[in-house]
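Write out a record, fold above all:
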Amino acid sequence: MEERQNNYEEKYEEEYKAHWEKVYEALNEEQTDEFREKFLEMHPYDQSVFFVDQSQENRIRIYAYLSPDELAEIMINIDLENTPGYFTEMNPRQGAMILSKMPADDAVDILNNMHKEEVVSFLTMMDQDAAAEIKQLLHYEEKTAGSIMTTEFVALYKTKTVVEAMQQLKEEAPGAETIYYLYVLDEDKRIVGVLSLRDLIVADNQVKIEEIMSEKIVKVSVAKDQEEIAQMFRDYDFLALPVVDFQDHLLGIITVDDILDVMEEEASEDFSQLAGISEKVKPDDSPLDAAKKRLPWLVILLFLGMFTASLIGQFEETLNQVAVLAIFIPLIGGMAGNTGTQALAVAIRGLSNGEYGNQGKMRLIVRETTTGLITGAVCGIVIAIVIYFWKADIYLGIIVGVSIMASLIVATLSGALVPIVMDRLNVDPAVASGPFITTINDIISILIYFGMATTFMSYLVS
């Protein structure tokens, strides 16, 4: 069975590569009809992969061979960070036509990544109705429900019959982003219910919509943060969510494909912050741009590192009397930094996924403290035994071992506690980046280590 599956996959891959080569050959030889036929047989995602893989010369040909509708489908499937560059290399009027053919929310995402002058230029050349819809969405603050919603949905009035609703659906479905959920409005255009396509299909023709709709509506405010909305999609397994104003007027809907993009964006942002980078580094960033994004944290950490160095200088007398203590400074600092970063990653992941309520946060603190105690005790005992056999000094082994145990407990606790405190202060927990926690734990571990060494100096020098 497994061999048959492998053979099938190999055959599929060979056919896929052969088809790709035919498309590439038709493009290079400027066989327009042959290219269109083969290219449009591909899945839209595969089309976007093929497009991105081409040289600028070949992309110019693709712009000429495909219609604005077909190019819009490609642009939707391309990584958002790269898309604006393709619009700048094509004819501006063609770019405006492509944006007009795209779902409004996708067009807004692309325009938000362009310079203001380019946005104004494209909006001026676009179809007036499409431009008006996009301008409306551009006014909403970034990373809110309003900025990621689409206005292409089907809404029914509650007084309509099923047969009337079906007729409306046939007319509006081609332009709607999704028709699996139909939203029901009252005479003041307030959302009062929701209806699934299945409910509409199985209902009697003359029944009114208000008799078969569900009044249990989960909706979000237009100003709600996109990260919180992503958590709602995950918790409730929604395909779409209605977006309303403060009076419950239906403004738009957010679909699951938009939320997948949000999840990727938020994960990338958290990863960058955990690595000590102020903004995500884009593929086309110059070395200077990349350096600008990394320098803020590096400068802060540089001064913290200088503070750490000056702190070690305060224990110069202890080091002069027992020089062997210097050997274990990197060991203790490194262990504290590593365990703090582990606890930090666990805490940020739980907070970003909404896994911890108030009780959950307290359980997290207790669990991480206990974990730090266990790991610290094990590592402390192991290093104490190693030092005893290595340096033949039981007191040095005990001091280093106890220092590691105390450092790991404190580091694990701080790794869990700092993100929770930041979350409580409405600051992104990911700002408590790995390098920041590592440096703070270096300072704490050195204080513990040299504090113990100074206190029990008489045992080391005797």
